[in-house]
Amino acid sequence: GKARSYLTFKNIPFEEVFSSRKVYKNIIEPKTGVRFIPVLETPEHDFVQDTAVMIDLLETRFPERSIIPDTPKQKLVSAILEMWGDEWLLLPAMHYRWNHDNFPFIYEEFGKIAFPRMPAFIRRIAGKKIGSMFKGFVPMLGITPKSIPAIEKWYEQDVLPSLDAHFAIHDYLLGARPCVGDFGLMGPLYAHLYRDPASGRIMQKIAPNLVKWVERMNQENLPLGEWLADDEVPDTLLA
Question: What angle do CA 8, 9, 12 make, to 5 degrees?
Fold first, then answer.
């Protein structure tokens, strides 16, 4: 969600390739040394795995429609919110995906990506095997029966209402133009918490303005807009 949304907003031409089992084996693992996606291949055939590094690289190559504010406060807030999205929203994203009723949707999605040409029933079986492995990683993130109530309370009573109130006033985090912080939030908020059935219903119910922001961030040919004047940071981000 983060990388695709960024490339679309910047009008950078790209080709999206499904991370099938063959792609993992022949490209992702040997070129990056890890099994994480997304991975960016440049025209020079260099491979970049981390989305924050991707954006830093592409901002230097494609300075038009920059997502990095020029002013100090906005630049700092944008970077902090990118990190917050990348690191902290990972907890509710992983919890709601694997500990709520998202099945067989999730298994079907894993199977579709890993084995796109296989029959549907084989994709479901394979997807369940792959998904079960990912589900086993969840406790390693600190998502346990002891921490789950706090994660859900934080997400449903703090994160969602706060973001909904903000996007009721502003199109993006810092005004009428997305910053790097917006794209940092897109990873967990779109790919997991918006798309997965259980968390998607929660977002629709609690934060309809956040839903509109997610959908706006995926649109093509968005107008550039402007960040708030005079290095202003909205009060809705400071509350």
Answer: 55
Coil, helix or strand for 67? coil
For 40, phi and psi rounded to 5 degrees?
-105, 130
What is the per-residue pLDDT across 117-170, written as a single tens digit (0 to 9) for each? 777 777 777 777 777 777 888 999 999 999 999 999 999 999 999 999 999 999
Give the number of C-alpha atoms closer than 13 A to the C-alpha of residue 56, restricted to the C-beta side: 8
Element holding 9 (H helix, E strand): helix 2-10
Q: Spell out a b/e string for 84-122, using b for 16 or more CB atoms within 10 Å of the CB, else e.
A: ebbeebebbbbbbbbbeebeebbbbbbbbbbbeeeeeee
Amino acid at 25: K
Place of tokens 């890890």: 34
Q: Largest alpha-carbon pair distance within the chain?
A: 57
Closest Cα to residue 110, out of 196, 200, 187?
A: 196
List, in sequence order, the alpha helices (H) in 25-176: 29-32, 51-61, 72-83, 90-99, 105-114, 120-135, 148-154, 160-167
Task: Tell me whether residue 45 is exposed, middle or buried, using C-beta atoms within 10 angstroms of its C-beta: 0 to 12, 13 to 18, 19 or more.
Answer: exposed
pTM exceeding the 0.85 threshold for the entire prediction? yes
Quick check: 45 and 97 in contact, CB under 8 A? no
